[in-house]
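Q: what sequence does this backbone want?
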């Protein structure tokens, strides 16, 4: 293999699915600094299983030091970027030769792995003690959580409220209908075209915007989270954000106008479904491109979006999938995702054992 010219400094901001893969790949060829407010990476598409089965989280919540032992882990939020440094909330200024931004979406989550595991246990305890559970939001998170609850606790009364006209609006109507039919067959009450004011609940009674009353002992908010780019709005990259708050990138995933800054995962403006497996592909491509730059090569590899695929699990055995223009439901998509939720595959990508 052709030797690298020198050990450059690569700063990766964000320890989610994209940032973690980039740190794993680059840690042995560069001086990598991974900046993340929490000490762990979480396999997020498995998190809803952890809500009803906390022991599952032992495999899905992984300390950054486990998969990137040669990287410098900086447990702090990034708050600014200059031409050669990233500043953190704790007051550090970390110099970079190459910068990879992978901050995805804003989310409030515990800083330590133990706190995260404790949260999952608390969620399960809350569900176990409840007669009725309210879920607000009919995207993939809300639909999968409803499915996990009714499969793990068949006697629970689950109500799902969604402000949109159909579930899973990010994919086709046929898949949405299949998901709705599956949930109603499992006695989930689905209320569409309405919202819920969670702050106005009284004695376990929630009011919808349509005037309906829902009785529930606990609730879960499963609506979309904002793009994690607010920290960039007063930075060097403020003019590189589009009207949705995403970083505009060139085909090689470099931020437009910046030769040594990349954006991967949900934070960039690539026109495709924002899926975890695609974020991993972004990370792999950018890692290869950074290696080329370190070697002094100018021609980088462009990103080419492949076949669009979405699989929404329905408990451990079933699911609904849309692959290109084909929609399917039942055991086949369940076999593709729902049993293991790609946890073994993801751990392998990070160089970890399946268990």
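A:
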């Amino acid at each position: 293999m052709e030797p690298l010219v020198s050990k450059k400094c690569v700063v990766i901001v964000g320890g989610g699915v994209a940032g973690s893969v980039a740190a794993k790949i680059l840690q042995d060829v560069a001086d990598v600094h991974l900046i993340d407010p929490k000490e762990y990476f979480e396999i997020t598409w498995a998190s809803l299983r952890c809500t009803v089965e906390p022991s599952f989280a032992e495999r899905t919540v992984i300390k950054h030091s486990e998969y990137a032992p040669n990287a410098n882990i900086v447990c702090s939020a990034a708050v600014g970027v200059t031409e050669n440094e990233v500043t953190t909330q704790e007051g550090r200024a970390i110099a970079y030769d190459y910068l990879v931004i992978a901050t995805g979406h804003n989310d409030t989550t515990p800083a330590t792995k133990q706190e995260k595991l404790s949260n999952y246990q608390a969620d399960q305890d809350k569900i176990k003690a409840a007669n009725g559970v309210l879920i607000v939001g009919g995207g993939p998170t809300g639909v999968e959580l409803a499915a996990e609850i009714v499969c793990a606790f068949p006697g629970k009364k689950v109500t799902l409220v969604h402000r949109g006209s159909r579930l899973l609006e990010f994919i086709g109507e046929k898949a949405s209908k299949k998901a709705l039919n599956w949930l109603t067959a499992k006695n989930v009450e689905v209320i569409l075209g309405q919202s819920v004011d969670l702050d106005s609940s009284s004695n376990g009674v929630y009011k919808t915007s349509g005037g309906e009353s829902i009785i529930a002992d606990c609730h879960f908010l499963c609506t979309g989270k904002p793009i994690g780019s607010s920290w960039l709005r007063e930075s060097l990259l403020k003019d590189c954000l589009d009207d949705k708050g995403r970083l505009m990138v060139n085909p090689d995933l470099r931020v437009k106008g910046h030769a040594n800054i990349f954006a991967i995962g949900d934070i960039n403006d690539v026109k495709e479904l924002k899926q975890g497996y695609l974020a991993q592909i972004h990370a792999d491509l950018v890692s290869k491109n950074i290696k080329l730059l370190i070697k002094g090569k100018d021609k980088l590899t462009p990103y080419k979006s492949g076949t669009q695929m979405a699989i929404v699990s329905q408990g451990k055995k079933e699911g609904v999938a849309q692959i290109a223009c084909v929609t399917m439901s039942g055991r086949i998509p369940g076999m593709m995702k729902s049993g293991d939720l790609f946890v073994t595959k993801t751990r392998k990508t990070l160089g970890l054992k399946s268990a």
